[in-house]
Amino acid sequence: MNIGIAVDSKHGLYVPVLRHADSYNNQGIRKWLNRTVEEIRNRKIGREQFQHATITLSNFGAIAGLYATPVVTPPQVAIVGVGRINEKLTLIDNTPTQINTLPLSMTFDHRACTGGEAARFMKALVQHLEQE
């Protein structure tokens, strides 16, 4: 899977593509992202690094906001928006506990996948994030 990562910069919005994202571990993704953001800041990133994304990840929560309705950019099939982490009081084993929640939004192209497929994708994403 090739994932576009939305990066806001003083030069505008860039969406570089992490190709074969499933072959990276967390440290590899972090290293790729740090290097890519530096290339964007220095305007040294090549045009080929913006091609062939299947899905985009947009972290609007880094700026502000909990939820959004991100727009899919064809020919991509979906975009996942990440809101700002917020604290929530909940009961765990009948004990009031403060937990962090991460709001996620997803927009997808019904011509490319069904609502059930999109829901299963989001469920798998949430399960993966909860394990980390």
TrEMBL record:
It comes from the Bacteria. This is Dihydrolipoamide acyltransferase component. InterPro entries: 2-oxoacid_DH_actylTfrase, 2-oxoacid_DH_E2_comp, CAT-like_dom_sf. The keyword Transferase applies. The lineage of its organism: Bacteria, Pseudomonadati, Pseudomonadota, Gammaproteobacteria, Vibrionales. It comes from Photobacterium aphoticum. Its EC number is 2.3.1.168. Keywords: Acyltransferase, Transferase. Its cofactor is (R)-lipoate. Residues 1-131 form the 2-oxoacid dehydrogenase acyltransferase catalytic domain. The keyword Acyltransferase applies. One of its GO terms (molecular function) is dihydrolipoamide branched chain acyltransferase activity. It is an enzyme of class 2 (transferase). GO terms for cellular component: cytoplasm.
